[in-house]
Amino acid sequence: MLKVEFKKASLVGICFVLIYNIFSSIKEVVSGHLVQTLSPFLLVFLTFSFAFVFFQVFSFLKNKSEYSKPLQDYSTLIKVNISTVGAWLGFFYGVKYLEPAIVSTLIAGFGPAIATIYQSYSSSKKNVNPVESYSAIGILVCSIILVLISLNGMTSVKTSDAFDIIMGVSLTIISSICVVVTTFYTKKLSSLGCSPITIMAHRLYFLIPVSLIAFFATNTQKVSITGNIPIILYIAIFGATLPLLFLQYGIKYCTPIMVVTLLAIAPLFTFLFELADPRLNLSLFSLIFIVLSTALCVLSTVSSLKKEQQVDNDSKMKKTIG
Q1: What is the rounded CA–CA span in Å between residue 132 and residue 149?
Q2: What is the C-alpha radius of gyration for the chain, rounded to an integer number of angstroms?
Q3: Which of 19, 28, 57, 189 is positioned for an S-S bond with 100, CB 3.0–4.6 A?
Q4: Do residues 14 and 302 lie in contact, with contact meaning Cβ atoms separated by under 8 Å?
Q5: Helix 207-218 crosses helix 74-97 at what angle (to 10 degrees)?
Q6: How is the chain split among helix, strand and coil, in percent rounded to 5?
Q7: Dist. CA 149–CA 139, nearest whole Å
Q8: How many other C-beta atoms can be found within 10 angstroms of the C-beta atom of residue 103?
Q9: 251 alpha carbon, distance to own chain's centre
Q10: CA 165/CA 128 separation, integer angstroms
Q11: Rounded to an integer, what is the distance from CA 310 to the centroid of its chain?
């Protein structure tokens, strides 16, 4: 019975992460258009101000008894807030310089490799899954190849400025590192008994003021958001608030390495949604390596599920013998 429940919890977590991927991919394509005319910092501020109010009100009304639980571990909460800043600012600036599918692939591609390295240092060697490790390397290689394709002008990006591409790649790698850090530390908050909504209520303390300050410090043009209100509201609801809640539930039910690896499926959804983007001429080379990266992600996830079940069985056997 325990084995079935454990497996069911993992599968539920996988479903939540996949739902996040779908919403996130749509957001990447939509925001890729918007940040060409609107400051990424302003978009982050408006989007997450909405999310912050939603999670604060909902958490306080529905989970009032556990609202202050994350504050019991100030160190972890601060790390989560700092990494959240890096993850989202890096992403929104990344799609300003690169096509959404490339940004998505870079963030997802570097994530498993970074998570594998982190996990190898934070746990014993016997807990390291070789299939996860090899898959992470493969996903990373696919991501690097996609970057090279972009640099050589073989993909749908029509960027002539090498500096823009370097900036886009650098910012997305920073975002990827921060996504991994956020995943591991929000998992730690979850282990304290904090619900996903409660964790989200405390994740955005730094992001909102930092993005607003950055906007005023860097903006040099007249701001007009009236015509973009419907798109901004769409991104706020379906690109940030709901997807992040789904992702947090995924983190609750899955291991961090599994979550980060599942995020590597996002580029496939992004590529498919780009079919509706008339500004992009889609690249066959990009599609080949995105599909390969997705296959490696599936292989790693299946291996993770099998290992979880094996660990669960071994634990039950030890209890029976004892």
Answers
A1: 26
A2: 20
A3: 28
A4: no
A5: 40
A6: 85, 0, 15
A7: 15
A8: 30
A9: 11
A10: 35
A11: 28
Q: What is the pLDDT along the chain (322 residues), one digit of tens a residue?
A: 344 444 677 888 999 999 998 888 777 777 777 877 888 888 889 999 999 999 999 998 888 888 888 888 989 999 999 999 999 888 877 777 777 667 777 887 888 888 888 877 766 555 678 888 888 899 889 888 877 776 666 454 444 567 777 888 888 888 889 999 999 999 999 988 899 999 999 999 999 999 999 889 888 777 778 888 899 999 999 989 999 999 999 999 988 888 998 888 877 887 777 676 666 666 777 788 888 888 998 898 888 888 777 766 666 666 566 5
Tokens 């809640």 belong to residue: 245
Q: What gap in Å lies between CA 73 and CA 52, rounded to an integer? A: 20
Residue 262 contacts residue 297 (beta carbons within 8 Å): yes
Look up residue 236 and give its DSSP letter: I
Evaluate the CA torsion angle 117, 145, 28, 47 in order and state its sign.
positive
Q: Which parts of 98-161 fold into alpha helices (H)?
A: 100-122, 130-151
Nearest to 108 by CA among 197, 35, 18: 18
Question: Collapsing DSSP states into helix, strand and coil, what is residue 92?
Answer: helix
**Would you state the structure tokens that stand for residue 6, as one six-digit string?**
């454990």
Instruction: Return the sign of the alpha-carbon dihedral for residues 170, 173, 179, 182.
Output: negative
Distance CA 258, CA 298 (A): 10
Task: Give the burial string for 24-61 (b: 16+ CB within 10 Å, else e).
Answer: bbbbbbbbbebbeebbbbbbbbbbbbbbbebbbebbee
